[in-house]
Amino acid sequence: MTVADALLLALGAVAVGSGALVVTSAQIVRAGLYLVVSLGAVAGLYLVLGAELVAWVQVLVYVGAVVVLLLFAVMLTRAPIGPSDDLDRPAWPALVVGGGVGLGLAALFADAFRWSIYPLPTPGTTDRMGAEIFGTWVLPFEVLSILLLAALVGAIVLSRPDIGAPKDAPDGVTAQKDGKTAPKDGVTAPKDDVGAKEGEA
């Protein structure tokens, strides 16, 4: 076994293990941190395979942008950070199904590539990859940028406080400002009990 093979096995184990912790963790912030470890291990796999550009794109886009965006979205939407009762249920059925699918795929790939020898393709260059992205694949690239923009706009909208009258507000009340209800135009706001009693006296 060469050093490259050992690195591939180690990084693959880290990626799979941290990926399993992502879906089994009861705290969403810890799940996000485990996702960072998993994506970083995948970037390491790309480095070992000689795809340096793809590895750095993996780090910059997924580890440095997508995971940070997910964590900020969780914080801005005020999602529960502690353990969730919905995630603490027994997961033995999911573990059995996931383990069976994993073993089946491993056996399938091991049998398919056991006696097959495939010639390695010519290593690509950064110039060629850039020409393919902004030439052949420019439309999917722009669609992906629009999708990311929509995600940012959605995060901003979800993080804004409620604007307008609440559903249970009485007629004539339109909004809340500084903890006080603002009356609708043409409607007089009711006085509090203390002010009413002082006026009667």
Automatic annotation (TrEMBL):
TM region positions: 6-24, 31-49, 55-79, 91-117, 137-158
Chain intervals with Basic and acidic residues compositional bias: 190-201
Residue ranges that the Swiss-Prot or TrEMBL entry lists as coiled coil: none
InterPro entries per UniProt: NADH_UbQ/plastoQ_OxRdtase_su6, Nuo/plastoQ_OxRdtase_6_NuoJ
Disordered: annotated span: 163-201
Single GO term (MF): NADH dehydrogenase (ubiquinone) activity
Reactions accelerated catalytically: a quinone + NADH + 5 H(+)(in) = a quinol + NAD(+) + 4 H(+)(out)
Gene3D superfamilies: NADH-ubiquinone/plastoquinone oxidoreductase chain 6, subunit NuoJ
Keywords carried by this UniProt record: Cell membrane, Membrane, NAD, Quinone, Transmembrane, Transmembrane helix
Topology class, membrane: Multi-pass membrane protein
Pfam families, alphabetized: Oxidored_q3
GO annotations of cellular component type: plasma membrane
Intracellular or extracellular location(s): Cell membrane
Name the UniProt record assigns to this protein: NADH-quinone oxidoreductase subunit J
UniProt organism field: Couchioplanes caeruleus
Lineage of source species: Bacteria, Bacillati, Actinomycetota, Actinomycetes, Micromonosporales
